[in-house]
Amino acid sequence: MLGLMLATPFVLALLVGLLPDHQRRAAAWLAGLAPVAGLVLLALMTPDVMSGEGVRSLVPWIPAMGLDLSLRLDGLAWMFAGLVLGIGALIVLYASYYLSEDDSMPRFLAFLLLFMGAMLGMVIAGNLILLAVFWELTSISSFLLIGFWSHRQDARDGARMALAITGAGGLALLGGVILLGRITGSYELDVVLASGPQILASPLYPYALVLVLLAVFTKSAQFPFQFWLPHAMAAPTPVSAYLHSATMVKAGVFLLARLHPALAGSDLFFYLVSGVGAITLLVGSWHAIFQHDLKGLLAYSTISHLGLITLLFGLSTPMAVVAGLFHILNHATFKASLFMAAGIIDHETGTRDMRRLGGMLRVLPYTAILAIIASLAMAGVPLLNGFLSKEMFFTEALEIRGHMFMRWGIAGAAVLAGAFGVAYSLRFVHDTFFGEGPVRIEREPHEPPRFMRIPVEILVILCLAVGVAPALTIAPVLHAAAQGVLGENVPNYSLAIWHGFNTPLMMSLFGLAAGIALYFGIRKLIDLYGISYDSRGRRLYEWKVAEAVRLAGKLTARLENGSLQRYLLLVVLSALALGIVPFLSSDLVFSGRSQPMPPLAWLVWGIGMVATVATVVLHRRRLLALVVMGAVGLAVSLAFVLLSAPDLALTQLLVEMVTIALMLLSLNYLPAESAPEPSKLRRWRDAAIALAAGGGVAALAYAIITRPLDTVASQILALSLPEGGGSNVVNVILVDFRGFDTLGEIAVFGIAGLVVHALLRRARMLPERRVEGPPDPLVIPNTVARLLLPLALAVSLYLFLRGHNLPGGGFIAGLVLAVPVLLQYVLSGNEYMEQRLGFDYPRVIGLGLLLALLTGVGSWVLGYPYMTSHTDYVAVPLLGKLPMASAMVFDIGVYLVVAAGSLLMLGMMAAVRPPLHGGAR
Fold first, then answer.
1. Which terminus of the chain has a smaller tally of CB atoms within 10 A, N or C?
2. pTM beyond 0.90, yes or no
3. Whole-angstrom distance, CA of residue 289 vs CA of residue 425
4. What is the pLDDT averaged over residues 68-79?
5. Element (H, E) at 56
6. Which alpha helices (DSSP H) does 18-127 contain, by range?
7. Rounded distance, CA 207 to CA 218, Å?
8. Neighbouring C-beta atoms of residue 586, cutoff 10 Å
């Protein structure tokens, strides 16, 4: 069920994303199905979690490297999964009323479900590498959500800033995960969490800890990385309510709780985590007081509360961990409701500026009451949930032992932050709902639609219920989460409302009184509305980005000066530098073992050598040099034939035909002859580099072909038919044994086609200026070429179908289909071909890659490692039993990508405008 719960948001994100923009209601219903279905599945697994056993799922991927699709649901993961899915369901309902008609509802909800799936995968991941992958996916999907209003500059800037900061933290996390795997010998969380003493004793511990904490601090907006969160408020309010209160910013503190058994227990952990948390707590709460934007105030208050949670985990005592988990739950409820209330105010008035608001209690009474209750919970007022976790925080601050300076410092910071929290909560309430106003608003405000307010009501009711009856409402959830972190070391604690008159209660009352006095004192002493706040962190970030762009510009100017010769020179020199490495190692042995060449082979070799030298001699006459270069490719193809490699020969021949044709099209936009070299010195330099490169490749080839033949090749030959289901070893290698390599190759091929499309689509001629074929119609060749096209299609399908047992396959078949189409372009013209073969080639490339990927996913679903193939014999009437291999579906993907990529490049280059001035060299 874990796999199904994880897959549901991703599958529905794809389905919702495919809906047209006008299907808003269908998109909302379909998107709402994901969290609801997830909650049902989570409820079915709840008994196992509450019993302490948990739920686990393991699908092997690369077991030798410790890489598996491992999922685990313990109490901590169960609590966070409930937050992700529960608040996610409320956000979908809220967003369906919040977004305007101009916004694409399917696209927004698809991004939201993508983020939901990424967050869910992160919390239930049972493998550190898998956790890091989902961690980065949350950064990417949050980038799409923050920048959803791409027409706004602040949204684009905020999205880039969030991606840069959290993405850098993701790289740090990957480094920390690798170090933890090196220390423990495994990436499985069960092993890592049980290896706490071993990790603490390792000399790599400080480095692993710092890298993991960098990921935590960047994701959860801890000092000094907190500046990105307020700028992410340019996102639509449903994004802020979901990502920046209950989910994404909680990813950092989740990781802190997840790895707490493995990393906590050292002075370094205590000082780093508690110190950064205390600074963030004070910085966030102080700056929140002076924000004029409702969401800006809530963003800084979120920073402050995240600092509080981080501080609690840094204290490392069992009770501090319980308090941190408790405040995660409380903060998610009151902060999500406050963000949605702020969104309602913005939706109804057209502004979030508190200087223009005021008096909202008169015009939005129900929304105002809900927001006021949530604000009081944020301030820590008694009988609300925020008060209980704040009391626990004060208690733990006073219980610090052995660090007297930190004890009094953190206790003082706790009281001061409590006063600041009351002050900014009071400002949120007073400046928005009381006083004169509103002024200069864009719309006549009124209460929102009933269902838009329901999510806020549910969360506010939870704030009240937990605050009044914590033992009956939140206690089981908190105990399960605490057990997921602390195991059997969960302390005895009470969630009672009243613990008597004690020091924590006095601290709470003092904080309430001091916060009220602070807010009204600030209003009286200074012009609160006249303060303009500019983030130093943002300025430093922008300066660093500007410096990076400047340095990149200087480097680019030195390397990319427009000379293709220089680019080629740098590529060849880099290849030479890397190619020297095998010669310096002891593994490269020239055994001298060879076999005699027949006379025909010497003839082929001679043709190849003569054509190669002729290409160099004739390089200035481009067309002639290209024809001679084709002879080199033909010689290589014949060499493969002589070496009994028909698949390679056929592939080389077809590739040569397609590439020569594409190069011929390119020559149309170049001068007939290249300019002479400027100096003899340059010619000698180029000759020396060419000889070094050619000699190095020849030496490597000689060393390889003279090695002993008892290699892995013999094993592949033996396993091709019984395990791969095919007697054509080359094709079985491509689609089965080395399917990953082929997947990467077709991805590169498809990307190359898309890059050509992106670069040349703006250079395409208008339809009326395109060449409609040759000047004089060639009737007979044209007719023959058109007759050849269906025949070539039949040959292409034939080669594809027989490829698993005889020379052929998806790659060859795709090229066979491209060659006659190329001939049609030459003889009939671009316009004729586009009218009759107007396929959407980029979509076909995407479809091919998707088919290839889904082939591997299918084996995963059936419990086998990714890309595992299966062969069976299927009885077909009249034909008998026919061999069928799952790799055939993969090969269809290869076929589509190769054919569509070739035709896309061909079609783009056939209709490019000729150069207006001169020509390229």
1. C
2. no
3. 8
4. 93
5. strand 55-62
6. 24-50, 75-98, 105-124
7. 17
8. 5
